[in-house]
Structures are given as C-alpha cells and as structure tokens.
Amino acid sequence: MIRQKFASSLCLTILAVFLIFPLSGCGNEDRIIIGTQTYSEPKILAQMHKLMIEDRTGLKVDVLPDLASSGVVTQALINNDIQMAVLYTGMIFDRYFPVEPDKDRERVFRQAKEGFDKYYGLHWFDPYGFENTYAFTVREDVAEQNRLDTISDVAPIAANMSLGVDTTWLERESDGYPAFRKHYGITFGRTIPMEVALVYKAVANKNVDIVLAYSTDPRIKEYHLKSLQDDKQFFPPYDAAPVIRNDVLARHPELNEIMSLLAGKIDVQTMIELNYEVDINKRNERKVAEEYLKKVGLLD
C-alpha cells in the first residue's frame, strides 16, 4: 500500500483538483484529468495525450501539474482524483504490491502492468521507449579521449577519477555506492557529495570527472555530456509509460488506440531534446508537445 508519508501531499492534491476542476473527475464522464509530477517531462507527455485525445474524441482533458511526487500521483489515480498519468516501471519496488526482484526492462514492465491492474485497477500501456533512471555521466571530451561507452569502460581509470554524487546514494547499502562497487568492481579515487542539481555543472566545469545524473535531464545536452550505458544492469529500469484507470477505459474504449500511439516512439535522446526546449529554452510545454506530434505525424 502507499505509504503514509504521502498523506498530507495527497490532501493538497485532492483540494487542488476540486478548486481547479470542480466539474471534473468521477462526476463528469466526458472529462479526464491527467496529473503530473513537478518536472517538465511528464508535463510535456501529458500535453501530448491531451492534444491527441481532444483531436480524436469529444472528451475534454485537463492537465493538473506539480503533484508532489510519483507516489502522490499514483494515489490520486487510485482515488480517482485524476484519471491518467505518466508513471515509471521501477516504482514497483516501492512496495505497492508483492514483486520479484528483477532488473530486466521487459519483466519489470510486465510486473508493473499486472500488479497495478490486479491491486489498483490501473492499466499500463506499453512504454514510450525511454528510461528516466540514474546514469553515470562524463564530459564528451573525456568519453572520446578514454573511449568510454559503458560503465565497465571506466574501470581502468576509475582510481584516478573523482565522482560527484548525491549524498544519499553514497550511503545506501543495498542500491547505492557500496552495492555498486561490489557489482561492477569499480572504486573511484574520490567521491564528492553534492546536491543532484549541481552535478551537471560540476562535471562540465571540471570540478569532478564523472557524476551520477538522471538519464533524460536536459543539462546533459546543455553541458555537452555523455551518459554511459549500464552494461551490467545495476540500476533498476525506470521506463516511462502512460497509465489510466480501467473504469475510464471501459467507458471510453476508443482511448486504447489513442493511448498506444506513442508506444516506442520516444527514445532517451528525443526526451532530452523535448525537456531541453522547456527547461533550457523556456518554451511552453503544450507548444513543444504540439510541435513534436506534428513532426511525427500524430497531429495535423
């Protein structure tokens, strides 16, 4: 079950729903609310779904942004305060229901699809095609000089490298730095704790040699960085996928086809580019979403 720490945020979520969309939710079957987290990625994707649904049906779609976390978004879905959202497969390891430990992308997605359907009545569509997960990241020039494509490629030079990383990851035994060292057999010469928001500029400015970043962050493009492939699958997969309530699908079966249109269409580089347009170029999420849909032929 969802942990109690989400309760206060959820109350604010519910209040926001009724203040912003008083005619929405379960009281109006021709209106759908898509809830999003606080960052640009799910906001852009929500706008894509809004545009495609309203273009192809008579449904009205509202986007409720800036819910505190994916946990809050999920609970709002369960409570029918929102009807649709973008979630990430690795969430299954946050104790929503019994799962088997796994790091295979397909099997983790299957557990997410089956578990959220069985326990919460939520339908997961096939993923968009990208993960938003941890990624060891270096400057492009460092990657080129040392022929770095995978994390394993770092092993011969790791002792001479400084790692900039979020403090909590350094300390977590089961899925942090101690476990990483055992899994890859790699120990960096120095570790420098810092806020995750600072790692991109730190590595770009040569304050550190390598950082643990997020794989779809637009600052990877802004600072000319390169993320290394997790070739030994240390990090759990976090494939993004659209999720909708089963009762909404039952009332509007036409959404099955519409919600599947983006499956496999957005790779990690494309998502970085879209996030870059919003976060770095300060463009409107809806406009960025609309341009992309027109570019790939999903909107006239």
Automatic annotation (TrEMBL):
Any stretches that span the bilayer, and where are they?
A: none
Entry GO CC:
ATP-binding cassette (ABC) transporter complex
Named from the GO MF annotations, one term is: transmembrane transporter activity
Which InterPro entries does the entry link to?
ABC_Gly_betaine_transp_sub-bd
Q: Name one Pfam family in it.
A: OpuAC
The protein here is known as: Glycine/betaine ABC transporter substrate-binding protein
Q: Which organism is it from?
A: Paenibacillus naphthalenovorans
Taxonomic classification, please?
Bacteria, Bacillati, Bacillota, Bacilli, Bacillales
